[in-house]
Amino acid sequence: MTEARGSTGLHGTTHAWHAPGTPCWVSLMVHGMAATQDFYRALFGWEFRPGPQPLGPYVRALLNGYEVAGIGQLPPDRHLPIAWTPYLGSDDVDTTAEQVRSCGGTVGVGPLDAAEAGRLAIASDPMGAVFGIWQAAEHLGTGLTGVPGTPVWNELLTYDTASVAKFYQTVFGYEEEPVVSPDFDYLTLHIEGRPVAGIHGVGNCLPRDRGAHWMTYFQVEDTDRTAERVTELGGHVVRTTCNTALGRMVTVADPEGATFSVVSRLD
Questions:
Q1: pLDDT at position 7 over 50
Q2: Has this prediction a pTM greater than 0.90?
């Protein structure tokens, strides 16, 4: 089945449904929800409204009236890494969770219902990178892409692609397209012929305090100006600006330390 997409062009692409295996949502769990909302409101122009709260306070970020991301409240006694987590679509989260376990991964949360929104699980691959699994009901996932302030790409940073590629292929049915290069270990993951995510093997360049992890990229108008704005708002630059195949990119962190990348198109 082909992913259902709506209008495209200057106002972006709207999404009515996400194919299984496609990154369909990104969510951030933090300690200071009010301050975090202020940061992303100022950075991306997001507005917020309450979302389902089976695990505690949660809001959905909206841009132009479309839901694009979620922010939740961590319990005070939970000292987990503050990180953006992509959710990968599934028609049956319970079956996908069993596949994760049988392929050497771990299911840390769920599967459980998120009120009427859908059903979810939080899992990690054999190298420890955390991701979510989402089975949509009333909440279909990211409703808008292709405009500044929306997710544009998700990429797994891991030790090497060979250690986890089979896991993701088996669990989510990805087709893989490797980059043929002796010094660049990279795979693009495809669903129905369309690139949806990447796996980048970076070896010992992984941060010691975090290990393998997923990175979410958000589209912006001007990468350099956005990096300056992050600093003005209390965040910081993690890796300096550079030009990539996606565009001009910089990796930054918000005031609670959640890292993400922003990218703008090259002229």
A1: no
A2: yes
